[in-house]
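re: ur question from earlier - yeah i can do the single chain one, its not a big deal. heres the input i used so u can compare w yours
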Amino acid sequence: MGANGRRFFARPESFRAAAGGRAVYLSPLLKWYGTDFGATQVEQLRALRPLLLPAGAALLDNPRVRVQYLDYDWSLNDQQLPPR
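and the output i got, formated as tokens:
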């Protein structure tokens, strides 16, 4: 996932942290395809850690951090290719 993953998680539509660092908000893609990143939520967060900016990655070290999922923007599916 490398550079593309880092760009994805740098966007507020994909990753946000609550004030005080008690919760992180992830793209719903992680909810739907979480097992691609690990069998448990702990494994999934561990897999995401290298893709996050340092401040976000540090939040995942808190064993009490709550994981919530953001709303998906379904209008992305409506985009059309330019005519040829």
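The chain has a mean pLDDT of 86. not sure if urs matches, ping me
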